[in-house]
Fold these 2 entries.
Entry 1:
Amino acid sequence: MRQIKQMKNLAILACICLFLFVNCSKLSLQNPDKARIEADVFLKTLYLDNKYEDAYEMTDPSFQQDHNSVDMETAISMWEKKFGKTIGFNATSYLEFDNNIIAIYFQSVQEKGVLFHKVELKLDPKSGYKVIAVYISENKFKEYRDPIRFDQ
């Protein structure tokens, strides 16, 4: 009877250790403030400075496989026709994902309205944050969980 109790305790301890190991291995190395700065520089380079080649250099090779700087210029001009030039940006919140990916959410003031932007970045320990995706919408993005707000 005593051996069974010891085996149960040992099994419980093993489960606790396994739980801690799995969860601690998922600890994030993300720095939301640094990611916000990188995303902000990217958007300003793209929208305010219209330096499409410079913005393209801030993207990850996975982004570059599917897009080029001309694609970025075309997308920006399409949105500017409808909403006018960008006046400014404000980072509102972020979400962290697995695989060192973080999404930074922005709201921009345009000459003719407001747009919402989602910039996804991937953290590379050697080269820092690189843009892997950019989304633009007339409406706020809906996620399966609430983004974490930046302290204002």
Note: The first strand starts at residue 86 and ends at 97.
Entry 2:
Amino acid sequence: MGSRAADVKNCQADEPAADKSSRAPTNLGARRHAIGTQCNGMSRPPFLLCAVLLSSIVAPAAATLQLPFASHVDLVALDVCATDRNGAPAAVASGDLAVFDNGIRQQIVLFSEGDRVPLAVTLLVDSSQSMHHGLLGRAVSAATALIDQLPADSLVEVMSFNQRPEVRYPLGVDHARAGLALADMAPAGATALYEAVIVAIRNQERASRDTNGRYRHIIVLLTDGENTAGWLPFDQVLDEARRSNVLVYTVVLPSHDAPDAGPSWRMTQLAVDTGGEIVSARSGDDLMSIYQRIAANVRHLYRIGYVPTPLTRDGAWHQVQVRAVENDLVLRTRTGYYAPYQ
């Protein structure tokens, strides 16, 4: 492959120029540095300021160490998707990757292969009136198939939303009950999309606190991308998502008002900024294959970590990039994090 670096899918969402201020949240971080305390259920961001027990810590040119971090280590943990040019999961080692924090290369001190990190997955399904004519049934079948592909130790949560979000099965290990919870849905009402995403993020963050960050936290969101109910602005949703350690995969169905428009920039940015993926479904018939691919994807993520140099605690947004050193890979991770504020 030579020394050619890979394309890095820390890409930026394509949105109207008037809305781009939400992408570079320099002032937003200073105004809302305490949002984790102000909003119920929010917890630490990917910048971990707590005891972290690690099963596999690797320096780029060193052997694997079986050693936990001390309680005051300032660790930035990232989940990274690595694929080849055809989209198939690719095997990588810590030495294959280079991490940059605000343009400065960092030393990787944590590296864990995907199947070593258990999953906590929220299936967030739009059950509004727009999901009629059998569309909701196909969505339920696809989500059920995703549950069946998850490892037995995975936590699963089932949520639906129309004019308000509803937790149908809280995060737990009973996959059969989660599947039954999916089956009991009927399309009705408006679409409180943003409120549903906030509830799902906070539920996952609460679980992260309760389990000491042991799980990889994932939301798989299905919607037509239109928020038609509720009071939350999108910038608050995006801000909480950026401060969380949750990956958001957004599966977007065609809008009834604009069937050829594609996913909205908001849904694209939500996925990209958290290190998830935006997937556009042409119709309900695509959902089964899309959910199967997501199930395979989340089982093959890598977790890497570093202690930022220089270390800052000013609440500012830090841009993150992960690049391949030599291999011809396509990499995807979150676009950044907020440093802690002190």
Note: Residues 17-115+300-338 form one domain.
